[in-house]
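Study this chain:
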Amino acid sequence: MRTLCSSTLIGEFFIIGFAGLVAMKDPSLSVSTVWLVSGIAMVLCVLMCAMVTRPGGVALGWVLQIALIASGIFVPTMYFMGAVFAALWWASVHFGRKVDEAKAVFAARAESASSTPDAV
C-alpha cells in the first residue's frame, strides 16, 4: 500500500505546485499567501509518504483529498483535479491493501514450504 499511496501523494505534490502558479494570477490573492498555503500542502504530501502505513495515515490522506477538492474555490480546475486524485487515493488504498494481503499469503506459503522437510 505504501508504494501506491506514496505515488499518489507525490503526484499531488506537483499538482499543488502547479495550482499555486495558477493561483498567483488571481489579483485578490497575495503571492505570499498562495505560496505559504501551497508550500505547506506540498510539504505535507511529502511527509505523508512516510506516514501512510502508520495509524491514522490513511485518514490524514483523506483530509488532504478533501482540502485539494476544496481548493477549487480559488482555482476552479482543482475541483476536477481534486476529484481525480481522491479517486486515485481510494484506488491506492483499496488495491494497496489487496497487494499487502497477497504478499502476506505468499510469505506464509513460502514459510510453510521451507519449514517442511523434503522427502528424498
User: Anything to note?
Assistant: Residues 42 and 106 are 36 Å apart (CA to CA). The radius of gyration is 20 Å.
